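Before relying on records like the one below, remember that each one covers exactly one chain. Contacts with other chains, cofactors or solvent are not represented anywhere in the record.
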Amino acid sequence: MRAGVNFAYAGGLLATGLVDVTGDPSALDSRGWWAVVVTYEGKVTCARFESVRPAPHPGGVWAGTGEWSTSLDEAAYVAGVERIRSEIADGVVYQANLCRILSARLPGEASIAGLGKRLVTGNPAPYAMTLQVPGLQVACASPELYLARDGDVVESRPIKGTGRTAADLLPKDEAENVMIVDLVRNDLGRVAEVGSVEVPGLCEVEEHPGLVHLVSTVRARVGRGGWPELLTATFPPGSVTGAPKSSALKLLEELEPVPRGPYCGAIGWVDADSRRGSLAVGIRSFWAEGGLLRFGTGAGITWGSDPLREWRETELKAARLLEVASGDGAGQDLAERGTARP
């Protein structure tokens, strides 16, 4: 698909014929099929499309990227982990998710459709979406569900705990997952019917390309409000912030030198007519900005964290995706070296 052509692709559906773009999330309770991106900082983009049909992912030009730089190098990231551990020791937070943003020059004739198609082939993900609308280009390969809605039933599936294999997962990972499940239960409880919040799956091992995750499921029945109320109660997602959320957000604002953008926000779709929708946590996601292609990666930090191990986890999460985007194995080399430039 040509650069400049507006479209969204998610779940085997191709949406074309852009008819409306708004920053008002109440539109998601109106009518039609909407593609949705909410940045970690809270900027909302809702794009309504006229035609939505089953189709293959559209193709486009993608030449691969050059060298990647990072907002936090290894030394800065390790120092950030130590700072979080110090704050945990002082009782300020129990857990915080420290992230860094990678950037590379965007190829001249690149199309986000071309990158999205490469991701669908090279790194299939359950909550993948590609979106191109004026001012926003995103290619997402997220494995994590932030919010799904079917009528009055909402579900979240937070991920905490990552390894190359299940044998790499530690007791620290399970403890971290349980902490975030508690946070998500509390968030959903703000808009749920009393007594309807449940956890049908806790710390289940899921396999994804190149790694495994610990995943839990939290479900509730919405007692009041629509999408704006859901977002207000639960955003940003707990798994990419920390606990307590308010304290973690303040600490991360000090430690992370650049905005996260769509990374760690929400990316997905809402069908207002059927009252259904699926928003991923915006991890494993690329976006175009200012002539650069950006990508975020991070790790959840607890008192039991080893700083170098957490740095390596950020590299592991990035490696396969950077390899797909670079087209020459550079992402894997980066993960093995751990020497991205600051």
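The radius of gyration is 19 Å.
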